[in-house]
Specification:
448 residues, alpha+beta, Beta Polymerase, domain 2, Hydrophobic Seed Protein, Hypothetical protein af1432, 4 domains, seven-stranded mixed β-sheet
């Protein structure tokens, strides 16, 4: 391929304008990092970062709209044509006391800036005006060889920023690269240091590993590096938990979970990815031998509890955690869908997490017995009900039950659900019929 990057779209042209303005005012400026790597791999970059000799105050003066996202580190956002671009001053760093952030930053030249970066494949610069690649760290050769290699001494790079331990796994899995032996040895040696990184950043990296291409390999690398044991001991605990061969010829729970990722088709939502990761996390705790048979009774309920604790630890947004737990709680219900009455089935199909649960069910089956009959049955029912309103407004509410003499409390929920199911089946056609049914139910419960 040629060195010329495709910059004909709105984002590309805006990035070139920023570089041109910096150059016109006497500053060196290049595209930097991942966008150069992606270009050399034949991919169109998602984001374009710019590195320059201009300092933050100079960048501010040159552009109309800037945001000082990391002024102390020389990092600004320049908004050009409504698109934000990270513009960072070439810098050298030192004194990483917290294992994440430098306490000393000095502005420098491109060569030195490249050497403080994490991996050779991310240490490249590109001149969009001359189409020249600048490589001070051997990144171009490592892209050609498909190798993730720490720049300089791997031990030092990981001591400086411990998040790089996870980033190495992420780049290797998503890019399909191998991790260079010295870099891999340093990751395994320092895996326990990942605890110094904030839960939010760990969650963010895990999300990128499990929602993108290569997620199965990411799962394996996390395990083999020792990082999974440090971050997700509950997932590591699934290793060696055997399952009945007739349903799970693939082996233990850990291997089954790995195989789920081999069947996911990126891009994958975070809900599906983490539901796949945690769907059987309750099995180690619920495994039992009953009458010579391995069982995992209520493992979905136990799994949802464990998953919620993990997600609280990793600071997942509450809404995302709720959806993932719903998928885990419901994943065993798919085996009974053919036995459901039409009203219950319509309620099942109309739940907010149904599509995510369907994808989880599909890969769960493919990673075990391989039978997709319930999946196909539900797709057929979706087509059958396509012209129906699957979630109409209930004919009566809790206020109606109270007016009919029912005591407020948790006992109202099953009554309302039963009535709604009958409404969906067409057994109750209007509000008057619903009130009659409700009155009879309340009388029946009182007489018990």
């Amino acid at each position: 391929m040629t060195n010329s990057m495709d910059l004909a779209d709105k984002k590309g042209m805006a990035a070139v304008r920023i570089v041109s303005v910096l150059r016109e005012h006497g500053h060196t400026a290049f595209f930097a990092g991942g966008c150069v790597r992606d270009h050399l791999m034949g991919k169109k970059p998602d984001d374009i970062d710019i590195a320059t000799t201009a300092k933050p105050d100079q960048v501010e003066r040159l552009f109309k709209k800037t945001i000082p996202v990391g002024r102390q580190f020389g990092v600004m956002l320049v908004v050009e044509d409504d698109i934000p671009f990270e513009v960072a001053t070439f810098r050298a760093e030192g004194g990483y006391e917290d294992g994440r952030h430098p306490t000393k930053v000095s502005f420098t030249v491109p060569e030195e800036d490249a050497r403080r970066r994490d991996f050779t494949v991310n240490g490249l610069f590109y001149d969009p005006l001359s189409n020249e690649i600048l490589d001070y760290v051997g990144g171009r050769d490592d892209i050609r060889r498909k190798v993730i290699r720490a720049i300089g001494n791997p031990e030092e790079r990981f001591r400086e920023d411990k998040l790089r331990l996870l980033r190495a796994v992420r780049f290797a899995s998503t890019l399909g690269f191998e991790i260079e032996p010295d870099t891999w040895h340093a990751i395994k040696k320092n895996a326990r240091d990942i605890s110094a990184v904030s839960p939010e950043r760990i969650r963010e990296e895990l999300g990128k590993i499990f929602t993108r291409e290569g997620s199965e390999r990411g799962f394996v690398l996390l395990h083999e590096s020792g990082l999974m044991k440090e971050i997700l001991p509950e997932v590591e605990a699934m290793k060696g938990i055997e399952q009945p061969e007739n349903f799970h010829p693939e082996g233990d729970v850990f291997n089954h979970t790995r195989l789920l990722f081999s069947h996911l088709k990126p891009p994958v939502t975070e809900v599906v990815a983490f539901a796949a990761l945690f769907h059987d996390v309750g099995k180690p705790k619920t495994q039992a031998l009953r009458k010579g048979r391995l069982t995992f009774y209520e493992h979905s309920e136990e799994g949802a509890k464990i998953a919620r604790k993990i997600m609280k630890r990793l600071r997942f947004p509450n809404d995302t955690a709720d959806q993932i737990c719903e998928c885990i709680l419901n994943h065993m219900k798919f085996m009974n869908v053919k036995k459901m009455r039409s009203g219950k089935l319509k309620m099942f199909l109309s739940r907010p997490t149904f599509e995510d649960e369907m994808e989880l069910h599909r890969v769960d089956c493919l990673a075990s017995h391989g039978m997709l009959d319930n999946y196909e049955f539900l797709r057929e029912k979706e087509r059958e009900y396509a012209n129906e309103e699957l979630k109409p407004k209930p004919l009566i509410s809790g206020h109606d039950l109270i007016a009919l003499g029912m005591k407020p409390g948790p006992g109202m929920k099953p009554v309302l659900e039963d009535l709604y199911e009958l409404q969906l089946e067409g057994a109750i056609k209007n509000r008057d019929e619903a009130l009659v049914r409700a009155r009879n139910k309340i009388k029946a419960e009182r007489s018990q």
